[in-house]
Amino acid sequence: MRQYSGGKMKNIFDLTVEDLEEYFINKGSKKFHALQLFNFLYEKRIKNIEEVTTIKKELLEEIKKDFSFDEIKLVLVEKDKDVSKYLFELYDKEHIEAVLMRHDYGLSVCVSSQVGCNMGCCFCESGRRKKVRNLEVYEMVEELLLIEEETKEKITHVVVMGIGEPFDNYDNLVKFLKIINHPKGLSIGARHITVSTCGIIPKIEEFSNLPLQINLAISLHAPNNKLRSEIMPINKVYPLDELIKAIKKYIEKTNRRVTFEYILLKDINDSKKCALELANLVKGINCYINLIPYNETNNLSFMRSNTVQIMEFYDILKKNNVNVTIRREFGSKISAACGQLRSKKEEL
Ligand code: SAH
Fold first, then answer.
1. Each residue of 102-135: pLDDT tens digit?
2. Which of 285, 304, 283 is nearest to 293 (CA)?
3. What percent of the chain is modeled with pLDDT above 90?
4. Yes or no: domain 12-66 corresponds to CATH 3.30.460.10
5. Best probe residue, ligand 1, of 124, 258, 291, 344 (max atoms within 8 Å of C-beta)
6. Residue 337 beta carbon below 6 angstroms from any ligand 1 atom
7. Which end of the chain is more exposed for a tag (fewer CB within 10 A), N or C?
8. 335 pLDDT band (50/70/90 cuts)?
9. What is the pLDDT of residues 3-42, one digit of tens each?
10. Neighbouring residues of 209: CB distance < 8 A, sequence distance ≥ 6
11. Is CATH 3.20.20.70 the classification given to domain 73-346?
């Protein structure tokens, strides 16, 4: 019987099709086995590699020796009508979360990309715990595999908006995206995948060179440099004007519309003046703004703007011809904001 590797070995779900092709070629075998193996792992979902019928026994033995098949463990599910929250335990006993949301257009899952987060946004629960480590590719992939197993339904949309800063785990993120997008992998259309960043400029540029039509969302949350630096420390490293320049370059290169996320925090960034400043900031940029009613947490003192204020903010943007939506709210009852379930579990 194989030993549990406890994260020490490369996991079979770490590999893209290209990685597997290289593996098979290095073994003196044929690269088409890569797609065959993908098919068994992701479409047929076989758990026992010995059941792979298209690859000969000796080679399967090698695969068994070379890779681990460890899984992350699903330890808690909280369910509400349209939303479920999943807590997973990793090989080193760390915990991560994913959230499943039912929309009329399909099933969307919000995945975590790191254990903890170093970005330190002061309104965000995840950032209360510093980054412990990046998630491995297989850990991100398995968030989705285990949710599909639990629901017995197909995930149609993915947002990388859980715990962590995905662009601070860039190489693993890209492999993860390739695996879930691949037609023989989880086959989730690139246009149905969104990566959200707090604004790590060099990675935005790298992302624009990725030959996948994946959506980019930027956590903006403030319309000027001073306020943004106060609530998002990353702005001191990559200031707002440079961020906007980088985004314009990204759009020029990819021809894709970006999303700006803007949490409305009572008396902090929700004034009429802020709305006007925001409208001005994004003028002429191919974007839309997603206004997010703040999900209050017990541990932080920020408050959600009241509904009248939210509507006023929205109207000002609309009047200034900005594409704007207010995010539909999911799961405030089941602690579905980033990091809340894990905090509860670990009583940080
Ligand atoms: N680090 C990435 C992705 C994770 S956060 C980023 O910054 O984009 C995903 C989104 O949820 C971000 O826009 C974040 O600012 C927002 N968010 C964090 N805490 C929240 C809360 N309590 N209520 C609503 N949105 C929150």
1. 999 999 999 999 999 999 999 998 767 899 999 9
2. 304
3. 86
4. no
5. 124
6. yes
7. N
8. low
9. 678 777 899 999 999 999 999 999 999 999 999 999 999 9
10. 253
11. yes
What single-letter amino acid sits at 162? G
Q: What is the pLDDT of residues 33-81, one digit of tens each?
A: 999 999 999 999 998 899 999 999 999 999 999 999 999 999 999 998 8
Q: Which of 71, 97, 142, 148 is catalytic?
A: 97
CA-nearest residue, atom 19 of ligand 1: 124
Distance 217 CA to ligand 1 centre (A): 11
Find the DSSP H helices in the chain.
17-26, 33-38, 57-66, 137-151, 170-181, 201-208, 225-231, 234-237, 240-254, 272-281, 307-319, 340-346
Distance CA 257, CA 10 (A): 36
> Hey, what amino acid is at 69?
F
Which residue type is seen at 275? A
Contact 72, 59 (CB under 8 A): no
Structure tokens at 285: 């940029």
Q: Which residue has the tokens 């859980």?
A: 162
How many residues are given for the chain?
A: 348
Rounded Cα–Cα distance for residues 111 and 98 (Å)? 5
Confidence class for position 345, pLDDT limits 50, 70, 90 = low
- Rounded CA-CA distance 167/178 in Å is 15
Structure tokens at 5: 């590797």
